[in-house]
Design a protein that fits this description.
Layout: H1 3-14, H2 20-32, H3 34-53, H4 67-76
Length: about 80
């Protein structure tokens, strides 16, 4: 398996939706490829941070957030 093939399978690897043979090839590739292992770690951390960002939508806005960004995000909120 090449790095490109691993990256193309990343989502199905993480969700375990790929066929067993492909999952096994991914595991073998990760065992030998430090770059893809680091990429996978970064990918997982990005997903976790994205989820955390949505945990408290009513919480305080960080002081360092630019006002333009705050207004743009508020404009995207669905009207209730």
């Amino acid at each position: 398996m090449t790095c490109r093939e691993f990256i193309e399978l990343l989502d199905t690897y993480l969700t375990r939706e790929a066929p067993e043979e492909r999952l096994r090839l991914c595991e073998q590739h990760l065992a030998a490829c430090a770059s893809c292992t680091a990429y996978l770690d970064s990918y997982r951390k990005t997903i976790a941070l994205g989820r955390m960002a949505c945990d408290d939508l009513e919480g305080p806005v960080p002081a360092e957030a630019p006002e333009e960004l705050i207004q743009a995000l508020l404009a995207l909120r669905p009207r209730s």
